[in-house]
Write a structure and sequence with these properties.
CATH topology of the largest domain: Rossmann fold
CATH architecture of the largest domain: 3-Layer(aba) Sandwich
Number of strands: 14
Mean pLDDT: 88
CATH superfamily of the largest domain: P-loop containing nucleotide triphosphate hydrolases
Strand content: 15-25%
Shape: globular
Order of helices and strands: HHEHEHEHEHEHHEHEEHEHEHEHEHEHE
């Protein structure tokens, strides 16, 4: 099957061709015709499956075929994302696929000046990509009118709930028209997601391209047992001995990300940290340097890493396991994207064994354990409670509220 069979217009097909794509991914193949029919969608898809295009392409098609005069402050289609990075990525895709269409789009998120955003919104937009907090700032200041939204997309809804955005989302939903087409995408399906979908979607078509909470089959997963005090040395050893050139490393806390990044630089490895306390400019630069290869290791927290989209990222490392089991699925989904292979390595100390059991229970698989010579763990060490920066957490297979 090619994109030409999905009912997309010539301008959109030309833009897709410019990007070198000829065949739709499974999620695109299933979702695009359904969205074009005007139906609500509940989509289950891991990162790296081509999810963004599965809603961006049909939205552009629908907006262009129902051309309307733009009205000041009014928005026709709204896409909500949990993080700035994901908003930027989605907004970039919209501009790429819609470059031959007479449509306007923009991105708004926090961490940058609000006045340029006000000027853009004042003109009216066909499509707006936004994070919930900054969108509500504009609503409160009367700089955006959401009363005429025809299409709503909640992208990575599970992450929005994890980050405590449920109240913000409810505020936005209360402003939107009752009659609209709604698309909700989530990599995992918790009870909270099901409840949100039940209240929001009208007779939705369920589209899934992977088992719920499953990890991508193209990712090779490895656990390296190691003492907590030897993790940094083991990471340096792996990067150098395996000649890894591009590695995304996850820590649990912002302070831990900063500390590890500095330590790697001291070990002669180019590194940068990305997390919520960094300015938007610093986050954008770190990600750009990582993508172009001038930085070989990007150390990130879960929230900041959402939206990092690198087509052929070969290595992801869990320097510390997440206390929320679903986050493991999200983390390792940064590699093995769009049919490419990838390796997800986890450095696990005795304190994290309960977290590991929670992850294996969620994903319904045993992860291969490989002990590296010279880094064998001391079996006499007793586990200690883990400090996640704010409080100790037991492993959870559901959202953890605002973090």
């Amino acid at each position: 099957m090619s994109f030409t069979t999905l009912g997309l217009s010539k301008p959109i097909l030309n833009a897709i061709k410019d990007e070198g794509y000829d065949k739709p991914t499974p999620i695109q193949k299933k979702a695009i015709p359904v969205v074009l029919e005007g139906k609500d969608v509940l989509g289950g898809a891991q990162t790296g499956t081509g999810k963004t295009a599965s809603f961006a392409l049909p939205l552009l098609q629908l907006l262009s075929t129902k051309s309307k005069k733009r009205v000041s402050k009014q928005v026709r289609a709204l896409i909500l994302t949990p993080t700035r990075e994901l908003a930027a990525q989605v907004g970039e895709s919209i501009k790429t696929y819609g470059k031959y269409l007479p449509l306007t789009s923009s991105i708004i998120f926090g961490g940058v000046g609000i006045n340029p955003q006000k000027a853009t919104l004042r003109k009216g937009l066909d499509l707006l990509v936004a994070t919930p907090g900054r969108l509500l700032d504009h609503v409160g200041q009367g700089t955006v009118d959401l009363s005429h939204v025809e299409y709503l997309v909640l992208d990575e809804a599970d992450r929005m709930l994890d980050m405590g955005f449920i109240h913000d989302i409810k505020k936005v939903l209360a402003i939107l028209p009752k009659k609209k087409q709604t698309l909700l995408f989530s990599a995992t399906f918790s009870n909270d997601i099901k409840k949100l979908a039940d209240n929001l979607l009208n007779a939705p078509v369920l589209i899934e391209v992977a088992k719920r909470n499953a990890t991508a089959k193209d990712i090779r997963q490895i656990v390296h047992p190691v003492d907590k005090t030897k993790k940094r040395d083991l990471l340096t050893h792996l990067i150098k001995s395996e000649k890894w050139k591009q590695v995304l490393v996850f820590t649990r806390t912002k302070h831990g990300a900063n500390r590890l990044s500095k330590q790697l630089v001291m070990d002669g490895i180019s590194s940068a940290a990305i997390h919520g306390n960094k300015s938007q400019g610093a986050r954008t630069k770190a990600l750009a340097d990582f993508k172009k290869g001038s930085v070989s290791v990007l150390v990130a927290t879960d929230i900041a890493a959402r939206g990092i989209d690198i087509e052929q990222l070969p290595n992801v490392v869990n320097f510390e396991l997440p206390n929320i089991s679903e986050d493991y699925v999200h983390r390792i989904g940064r590699t093995g994207r769009a049919g490419n292979g990838g390796i997800a390595s986890s450095l696990v100390c005795v304190d994290e064994l309960e977290y590991l059991r929670g992850i294996e229970k969620l994903t319904k698989q045993k992860i291969n354990k490989v002990t590296i010579k010279g880094f064998e763990p001391d079996m006499s060490i007793k586990p200690e409670p883990i400090n996640n920066g704010r409080r100790n957490n037991k492993p959870k297979n559901r959202r953890a509220g605002r973090r």
